[in-house]
Amino acid sequence: MEIEWRIIKIVSNDDVLVNAPSNVSPKNPLTVFSDRSERPHYNVPGLALYARRDRLSRYGYHMACHWHRDLEFIHVVGGRTSVFVNGEVRVLGAGEGIVINSRRLHYLFSDDGEEAQFVSAVIDPALFGAMHPQLERAMREHDGDDRADFVLLTADDEEDRRLLFGIDEFEATLAGARRGAGANAGTNAGGAGGVGDAGGADDVGGVDDASGAAGATDASGDAEASLDLLRAVSQAARLCLLGLERMEKRPEADGSGAGSGGADGATIGQAAAVDAEVRGRSRESFLNMVAFVREHVAGRLSLDAIARAGAVGRSECCELFRTHAGRTPNDYVTDYRIARGRRLLGDSAMSIGEIARECGFASPSYFSYVFRRRMGCTPRDYRARERAGDDGARE
């Protein structure tokens, strides 16, 4: 099927334009930056902050592997989940958490289908870096590739508890700000309806009074919602500070061989630099293959085509996916197609058949079969559940 493509969104001079089908709702446009990272679907449009209380089952117990320039903070409040970050896997239980540094490949999963409830906060450090060059430099110094990929958090440590509680407070504040914005929109709509319902000259005074009272209420509500947003920004800055100051420098980053001196230390440092260059090239190949998958998800994706996108052979392609995504290319493609299907089911008015084609499935029945096997429900049931009020799905 021929699909008409259009440009959706551009955010800054560093961004690249992303194609998307013209029949997809613009409710949550996808933005991909030039470094292949993705922009999350923030709670309040235009403000680079995201927070949500979530559960692993919403993602079929296996999130799609993704990355973004935002810092991510996760607090597990119930159950257990495994977390993959740049090739390393850790298990988090209730009361534990993790801070994931900027531009790190990551996802949550449970191989045995165990449920986990967690609070997730996503904050773009550029929100604060744009305020002053020194702030931007501080962010870059601590979220670069020479810093730790993640920091684990436990309830036994006082500093960790501050971060864990901070994640919860940030989510509650941002949720309140979003509810306030929605309530104010509803109040404004209701006020307009009241004026329209008024009839006759005798009612004019009453309408004016009601309109004035509604205006005062709206102003008060707007002010409170604005304060909630200000609180959220303040809490986000605190989380960034507490998280970034824990991101230690890698031992090999200074080229000294983890503190070794003399010629031996220099040799070790040079070897580390070569290893870092090789890792960088392999990561670039992997990201090019991931970008190819996402750009061609609606079509047929063969292993040969994916490998060519990364300028590698079939075996190296499989090895790179195992290293950087913890799964085979085929599993990654399936995971991404299901994740895209979830998003379209929640955010668009497309039919099940249209979504199946858009996600690269040969037929609606096969899409439903794979979706149900992964998610435990049919696409139709998933859409009904999302529209019943469980909105804000993310990848």
Automatic annotation (TrEMBL):
<dbReference type="Pfam" id="PF12833">
    <property type="entry name" value="HTH_18"/>
</dbReference>
<dbReference type="InterPro" id="IPR013096">
    <property type="entry name" value="Cupin_2"/>
</dbReference>
<dbReference type="Pfam" id="PF07883">
    <property type="entry name" value="Cupin_2"/>
</dbReference>
<keyword id="KW-0238">DNA-binding</keyword>
<dbReference type="InterPro" id="IPR018062">
    <property type="entry name" value="HTH_AraC-typ_CS"/>
</dbReference>
<protein>
    <submittedName>
        <fullName>AraC family transcriptional regulator</fullName>
    </submittedName>
</protein>
<dbReference type="InterPro" id="IPR011051">
    <property type="entry name" value="RmlC_Cupin_sf"/>
</dbReference>
<dbReference type="InterPro" id="IPR018060">
    <property type="entry name" value="HTH_AraC"/>
</dbReference>
<dbReference type="InterPro" id="IPR050204">
    <property type="entry name" value="AraC_XylS_family_regulators"/>
</dbReference>
<dbReference type="GO" id="GO:0043565">
    <property type="term" value="F:sequence-specific DNA binding"/>
</dbReference>
<dbReference type="GO" id="GO:0003700">
    <property type="term" value="F:DNA-binding transcription factor activity"/>
</dbReference>
<keyword id="KW-0804">Transcription</keyword>
<feature type="domain" description="HTH araC/xylS-type">
    <location>
        <begin position="287"/>
        <end position="385"/>
    </location>
</feature>
<dbReference type="InterPro" id="IPR020449">
    <property type="entry name" value="Tscrpt_reg_AraC-type_HTH"/>
</dbReference>
<dbReference type="InterPro" id="IPR014710">
    <property type="entry name" value="RmlC-like_jellyroll"/>
</dbReference>
<keyword id="KW-0805">Transcription regulation</keyword>
<dbReference type="InterPro" id="IPR009057">
    <property type="entry name" value="Homeodomain-like_sf"/>
</dbReference>
